[in-house]
Amino acid sequence: MGIYTRTGDEGQTSVIGGRVIKDDDRVEAYGTIDELNCFVGQAISFIDQANGEFEDLREHLLEIQQELFDCGSDLAFVKISESKYKVRDEMVIRLEQWIDQYDAENPKVERFILPGGSLLSSTLHVCRTVCRRAERRAVTLGQHTDINPSVRRYLNRLSDYFFVVARTANARQQVADIEYVRSKKVFRRKDKE
């Protein structure tokens, strides 16, 4: 099989069920998810260079990579029956459980956090922001066509997950989060007081 087909040379690409221009909202949505998946792969590469302190995170990120492909697949269909969707709300619930698990390791936070700290944490913050953009692209797509609403919910929760695990990466490596010093105290967590 050849890598190049020349079918996109005129600015169109194939989606499941038709052809669209390459900057179509559908292509923007699943293309941003693909970009996010690349950064998740980069984060895994940094974990692979660590001393085994992130094996749980590595396992979760590998599962997330599979699920990001599912998200892209669900958005790539021009028409699809709900029974064919791959992304389900159970995946969102599981992300919430992971968020709670990792957040229990994190120090109390009261102010906004600046992206940074360790290399792994910085990369996970990049994942968070690209995930937010993917969510925005899915919202845009959903304004004029039916999409799997679980994809939107999944991406929303996934960005929260990346925020929490970026902090966990710093905590496990004993690197302090960088607080936004001009921020008022915006986070109040009774369970950590």
UniProtKB/TrEMBL annotation:
Which part of the chain is the Cobalamin adenosyltransferase-like domain?
3-169
Q: In which pathway does it act?
A: Cofactor biosynthesis; adenosylcobalamin biosynthesis; adenosylcobalamin from cob(II)yrinate a,c-diamide: step 2/7
**What is catalysed by this protein?**
2 cob(II)yrinate a,c diamide + reduced [electron-transfer flavoprotein] + 2 ATP = 2 adenosylcob(III)yrinate a,c-diamide + 2 triphosphate + oxidized [electron-transfer flavoprotein] + 3 H(+); 2 cob(II)alamin + reduced [electron-transfer flavoprotein] + 2 ATP = 2 adenosylcob(III)alamin + 2 triphosphate + oxidized [electron-transfer flavoprotein] + 3 H(+)
GO BP annotation list: cobalamin biosynthetic process
Q: Which Pfam families match?
A: Cob_adeno_trans (PF01923)
Keyword field: ATP-binding, Cobalamin biosynthesis, Nucleotide-binding, Transferase
Give the top-rank taxon of the lineage listed in the UniProt record for this protein.
Bacteria
Q: What is its EC number?
A: 2.5.1.17
Q: Name one GO molecular function term.
A: corrinoid adenosyltransferase activity
Signal peptide location in the record? none
The UniProt similarity line reads: Belongs to the Cob(I)alamin adenosyltransferase family.
Q: How does it assemble?
A: Homotrimer.
Q: Which PANTHER family match?
A: CORRINOID ADENOSYLTRANSFERASE, CORRINOID ADENOSYLTRANSFERASE MMAB
What NCBIfam families does the database record attribute to this sequence? PduO_Nterm
Mind telling me what this protein is named?
A: Corrinoid adenosyltransferase
Q: Which organism's genome codes for this protein?
A: Paenibacillus pabuli
